[in-house]
Amino acid sequence: MPAANADTPSPAQYPQAQSVEDFRTRLAAVHATMAAAAQRAGRDESEIRLLPVSKTVSEERIRHAVQAGCHQLGENKVQEAKRKAENLADLDIAWSVIGHLQTNKAKDVAAFASEFQALDSHRVAEALDRRLQSAGRSLDVFVQVNTSAEEQKYGLAPEDVAGFLRKLPAFESLRVRGLMTLAVFSADTQRVRECFVLLRELRDQIRETDPDLIGPGDLSMGMSGDYEIAIEEGSTCVRVGQAIFGARSRPDSYYWPTDRPPEQR
Ligand SMILES: *Cc1c(COP(=O)(O)O)cnc(C)c1O
């Protein structure tokens, strides 16, 4: 089993999937791991959505993944997601943007995405809603929470989440689905677990005080290195890239800000 959030997985740990057959095998393995984690926690695997994350993956390989059954894909960067959505428009794919968004990219997200998982500012909510209204579309959103108290991480501080959610009903085209987080990048699984527990407890607390504000109260948490722990702690959506597609050559620091080199995390 991979260490939680191993930063530079060896190619052997996450081999590249190329063919449709490779993807079928990999998806089956991830689903089996999800089911085992769910069972350990007394949960039903059907409560948990697998969102394959295809960042850096070529369109040719994505076509094979779609043939193997991936019809929802997560992408961290809007530019890359937009290009893929255009070039793969002939396929049945719902695109989920899971990375930080700048207001000047809201128009693009409103045009092609069906879900945005990294909402953490009023300005972005406002920009998205304006673009969605004029496009006559709506968008599922998750509010991103910084559960690791790392300064460089995106997301709202846990204590600011309820106040933020209270502002969202004004944006009628945004459909709040729940909360999203990235755990601390650490091989210390206890610290990783604490991030997931914090998100679940925050969701439970908001359900008590403001049940109308959090939609179904979904929890998007867990990635290749830590999705089993996330499922044990209540995740309803795991965002899994490398365990399906294979190791990425581009360092993760390209996708989110970090202040330390990977080996020190
Ligand atoms: C890349 C990414 C993931 C998936 O990470 P893997 O290690 O490839 O599973 C999950 N969430 C976000 C926000 C990402 O950018």
Automatic annotation (TrEMBL):
Residues 27-248 form the Alanine racemase N-terminal domain. Pfam families: Ala_racemase_N. The modification N6-(pyridoxal phosphate)lysine is found at K55. Keywords: Pyridoxal phosphate. Gene3D superfamilies: Alanine racemase. GO terms for molecular function: pyridoxal phosphate binding. The keyword Cell division does not apply. Its cofactor is pyridoxal 5'-phosphate. Belongs to the pyridoxal phosphate-binding protein YggS/PROSC family. Pyridoxal 5'-phosphate (PLP)-binding protein, which is involved in PLP homeostasis. PANTHER family: PROLINE SYNTHETASE CO-TRANSCRIBED BACTERIAL HOMOLOG PROTEIN, PYRIDOXAL PHOSPHATE HOMEOSTASIS PROTEIN. This is Pyridoxal phosphate homeostasis protein. It comes from Brooklawnia propionicigenes.
